Amino acid sequence: MPIYEGMTEMELENKLIADLADFNQKYADYVRCNNKKINPNNSKFKCTPSQISINNVSAAHDIVMGDFEALNSADNISNITAAQYKATYSDIMNTHQNKIIPLRADLDRKLQELYKLEGSNTREDTLKYDAVFYSGILWTVAATSLLFYVVTKNT
Question: Could you state, in order of their start, the residue ranges of all structural domains in the chain?
């Protein structure tokens, strides 16, 4: 089993997720390449020998299990000092305050414009356009009716 000293719990979780994604890809390749119905005699996908071999999948599985064991070990949790925890927590909170909240506000503003919600410039412009359009139709109907009345009344 590899040595994980000096890694924080968050770093171990990130490593576990990355190794799990690698395992999933290798397992999917193995299943796809060894399926006789969709890839008979390796004629469709042209898989490499490492994709066909179960040893590649087993090695990736062992790495994931090692990461999982390291993450669950009680020794790992005691290696995190209060200063490391505070620094990591501050970094997460600063990222949240300085990047995520402004991005979320910008996204909310853009969605408000896209969906023409109350208070958006798009909604105001649409209402102005509709008012001009319908008043134009109203004036056209009124003028046509008046003209029709004048022409038919005098004949």
Answer: 1-80, 81-115, 121-155
